[in-house]
Amino acid sequence: MGGRTHARRSIHLPLAHGKYTLRGLNNRLMALRIVHYNDPVLRKKGDPVKVFDSSLGLLSEQMVATMHTASGIGLAAQQIGKALQFCVVDLRAADRDFTWELDGAKPPLELFMPLTLINPVVTLLPSEETVYEEGCLSFPDIRGDVFRPDAIRVTYQDLQGTPHTLACDGLLSRCIQHEVDHLNGTLFIDRMEKKVRTGLEKKIKELAKQTREESEAAP
């Protein structure tokens, strides 16, 4: 692994003026409730997906709609209360200062995004570690610097169960690493250096308290 790069950037990017509205969020695509820290499901390792049917496609559409509604660029199944090896990513509205190779080719981003990754396995490739200011839809208003390797290879299945291999770097790599961490019960606050985490501890504890109180008040 190479050295560290300290160019500070943000992973939490809003979509551009609602560019990717999905059929008006009708009943089929109702936005789902996003689970907040410290809900126990966020610490659960997802079960492998074994059945590839129409319900899986609907889940993907609902998660993409939820992600877009929340102005996110990635969402894991744990974040909508399901412990599965399943996540979605959409970087069409982001600056494209990253590279990718999908199954040995470089198709336009619009041809494979939004991207659904099922049973993903990430392999870190030799590269520098870079720092981004990461945010997370399960941690509203909490952001902090996180170092991660810049380049990865991820193998995954699509909604039909077909296997794929994606090599990428930059923001796409960062986003996939963040979401696959969720699938294994790891949160971005776990990746922060101690001094960064310490500076956010008050907000993190307040969020955990709020989540607990909401859970206790629920019928």
Plain-language structure description:
By secondary structure, the protein is of the alpha+beta class. It has a single domain, classed as Peptide Deformylase (Alpha-Beta Complex). The chain is 26% helix and 26% strand. The strands form two sheets. A six-stranded antiparallel beta sheet has the order 2-3-5-8-9-4, with helices on both faces. The chain is globular, with a radius of gyration of 17 Å. The N and C termini lie far apart (50 Å).
Rg, Å, rounded: 17 Å
> Which residues sit in consecutive blocks of at least 5 with pLDDT less than 50?
13-27
Number of domains: 1
Which band does the percent of strand residues land in? 25-35%
* Structural class based on helices, strands and sheet pairing: alpha+beta
Q: Tell me roughly what share of residues is in helical segments.
A: 25-40%
In the CATH hierarchy, what is the superfamily?
Peptide deformylase
Order of helices and strands: EHEEEHEEEEEHH
* Strand numbers in spatial order across the main sheet: 2-3-5-8-9-4
In DSSP terms (H or I, runs of 4 or more residues), the helix count works out at: 4
Straight-line distance between termini: 50 Å
CATH class group: Alpha Beta
Task: Provide mean pLDDT, rounded.
Answer: 90
Count the beta strands.
9
CATH architecture: Alpha-Beta Complex
Q: Major sheet, described briefly?
A: 6 strands, antiparallel
Please tell me what the overall shape is.
globular
| CATH level-3 fold name | Peptide Deformylase
Descriptive key words:
219 residues; alpha+beta; Peptide Deformylase; three-stranded mixed beta sheet
